[in-house]
Amino acid sequence: MKKILALNLKMNFNYQEVIDYVQELKGELKNKNVILFPPTIFLPYFIGNEYPFGAQNISEFDNGAHTGEISCTQLKSIGGTYTIIGHSERRKDQHEEDGTLNLRIKKALENGLKVVYCIGETKEERDMLKTTKILKSEIVNGLAGIKPTDLKNVIIAYEPIWSIGTGVIPTNKEIASTTAFIIDTAVNILNYKPRVLYGGSVNEKNIAELNKIANVSGFLVGGASLDVKKVLKMKETIER
Ligand code: 13P
User: H helices of the chain, where?
Assistant: First the structure.
């Protein structure tokens, strides 16, 4: 299976920068393994390109009076096929919890969207040796009550929070053992074997080394996704 490169543009770019970015990517991403997650306001600029795209978050409601939210049907109406759910920045800034995230995942799957579900521990949790406890509860609670046949459309992104935007990355051995734990937990408790992405300070320089980790099916990239040259270098490295 092709390795995935998921690009989370977060709350970056203004109008002209998005136009330039889309233009620079044109014709470069034919393999469909690079997925773009632009800021919501710029989603329409990603319509009609050869690569899949999606939202950085999605509502658990169908439509109507939910100010500031976007629905699965709205995203689908412009051709979006993916959504990130449970990014640690949203868990922290918007106080999103596993219960709500579970409803969003269910709504997205009902609508035929593919989900990138983010999990990960803080520095404090890691220092207190709570990483596996946290990951297990995020997996079990976030994915509760979803059939294995639906779970096949859920990709798990393991993003240690202390590694996001810091340049500090776990060793390959640590990532291998944590991702093995994530896969085993999902297999044993939910009867599904997820594809697991690694996220946290991935860039065009370190991706070749990270790409050696057998359990890792791809990467969720923040900062380095803002530069098309870096994106193409990362893409080329994981496709080698
Ligand atoms: P950075 O690649 O900037 O560390 O961000 C990772 C991330 O949060 C992707 O969702």
Answer: 15-25, 72-77, 88-93, 98-110, 123-127, 131-142, 148-151, 172-185, 207-210, 228-239
Please give the class, per CATH, of domain 4-238.
alpha beta
Distance CA 109, CA 178 (A): 26
Helix spans in 143-203 (H): 148-151, 172-185
Whether ligand 1 lies within 6 angstroms of the CB of 39 is answered as: no
Q: Quick check: CB of 201 below 6 Å from ligand 1?
A: yes
Q: Which atom of ligand 1 is nearest to the CA of 157?
A: 10
> What number of helices (H) and strands (E) belong to the chain?
10, 8
Answer yes or no: 159 catalytic. yes
Active-site option among 121, 125, 138, 159: 159
Give the pLDDT of the chain (240 residues) as one tens digit per residue.
899 999 999 999 999 999 999 999 999 999 899 999 999 999 999 999 999 999 999 999 999 999 999 999 999 999 999 999 999 999 999 999 999 999 999 999 999 999 999 999 999 999 999 999 999 999 999 999 999 999 999 999 999 999 999 999 999 999 999 999 999 999 999 999 999 999 999 999 999 999 999 999 999 999 999 999 999 999 999 998
Coil/strand/helix, residue 86: coil
How far, in Å, CA of 121 to CA of 112, rounded?
29
Decide whether any atom of ligand 1 lies within 6 Å of the 71 Cβ.
no
**Could you tell me the pTM of the whole model?**
0.97
- Rounded to a whole number of angstroms, the CA Rg of the chain reads 17
Q: Is the CB of 221 under 6 A from ligand 1?
A: yes
